[in-house]
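tool_log.txt
---
The assistant was asked to compare two proteins side by side. It first ran the structure predictor on the initial sequence, then on the second. Raw inputs and outputs are pasted verbatim so the downstream comparison step can read them without reformatting.
(1)
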Amino acid sequence: MQLFISISLFILSLSLQGCSQSYEDRNKTIITSLYQELEDKGYNVGIVDKYFDKSYIQLENYKTYNFETFKDHVRDVQAMTRKVKFLPFDQIITKEDYVIVRYFVKAQLKDRSIQAPVVAIYELNKDGKIIRLWEAGVTSDMVKNSDYILNQATIR
């Protein structure tokens, strides 16, 4: 009987590990899909509704957005951007509810091009919606300020 209980507990622990791994894979896929959709379709508020939970909070270079103010931010980015290209992730790490990505973004703005590094830490809920983002990199305020251009870039 004790052997049966030990084997059952071992099998249960393996199945829980498998659930955790597939959960992390799902979160990685969600974030990867978000960036692909941003690149393919551009910034639009529909993406916010699709990927982000209504309780969403973003902390970005000393600015904080909630779900509604983030939608305004997306509209601002959309208004000043012609094309966005996310270079392949330098790193993507998943751990439970978190996905961490490090990459470069190239943006063709109305009047110039920019390229900047970004580090983003996403937290997703059990439903696969993004509930929190900590991001360090280029911001819309930096883009508006013509003195901040990390590197000129041409998007092809």
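(2)
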Amino acid sequence: MKIRYALLVALSLSLPSYGQKKQSTKATPQIQRVQQIQRILKPNTSRQKDRNRINIPLTRELIDYGMKKHDLNILLQGYSELWLRTVDRDPEAQINAYQTLHELKNLPWLTATDRLALKLFTLRYYFKRQDRYRYRSEEIVAKHVDPINPDHWSERDYNTFYTTRIRELISDPAALSASLKPYSAAFSIDEGTIGEPTFGTELLNNFPEDDALEALHREVLKTLRPAAEASKSVYYRALIDRHQIHLDKDKMTETQRIEALEGYLKKYATHQEVSTGLSSLLGIYPYQRLRRARFLESVIQRVTALTPGMRKQLGEEAKRCRRPELLQRADHSYLDRVGVHLEAPYLVTKATVQLYKVPTIIRP
């Protein structure tokens, strides 16, 4: 018998709103219960896998609470936690999850901001589940595409879905500058997160990495930039700048890459948000070894708002760059000799060759 998770779950609870709506300064026993459930459901809870089945009733408590109190934040958290514990065990549960996301938009009590959050949450959920389906062969891709269930979508179907939803989201750029903290439970935003997360930052952090969507990616950055520059969120502005640099890096010369990095570091040197995503950004620096070490050491000195953790990480990388060692893959073009390409003149004092047995892959 197929089991469908109902949109409304009948439980006898009467909990005050907690999360999205304004709360009383005094924690009532009911609010403490909600907080207790959220602590239990955290992924770092010991023996989490053993507790998953036991915790399913707790997720339904959150769903019922969010539905009764018109609190989308906790409602989405409840569904997210429920699906986390069921979709990998029951294929029907996954289909129900996609169907539920599309049914939620018909709730009459949703505010305009709620609807924006639901669209973003839906896009995020599809994006995080895409890898389960994106490598399906064309033979099993459905001729008549189900608009809700992506089980038999091709990559083109996914990109069509993303394009439509993303263009809906960016139709009001100013709305995407709003803080996402009222929906922190739904989007799993930790209290210690650096910077002010917005609807726009969540969209960019979950933007599909596909070359076919590069033009859309550029369109999104161009559309969001004016509103982001006018917002209070330094994190939002820095994220847009990082995305732009990563998009343009392959078309940049070595000098232009360095100029882009220097401009970014100068702009955000006194903001703690500079540490977010910095390791990936510094990966576009075009030189290695001693020049990279000197560059990293100058970053540590000039960028005053680096977090202690990032300062330590860059310092350790600079030390590794100064070590007189170089690991290169050998050229396999010749059977009787190997060639190694060095990007700059070096005095080679020692060479160590390591041979590995290639494992045999038996294909069905």
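---
observation on (2): Residues 1-25 have pLDDT under 50 and may be disordered. The two ends are 34 Å apart (CA to CA).
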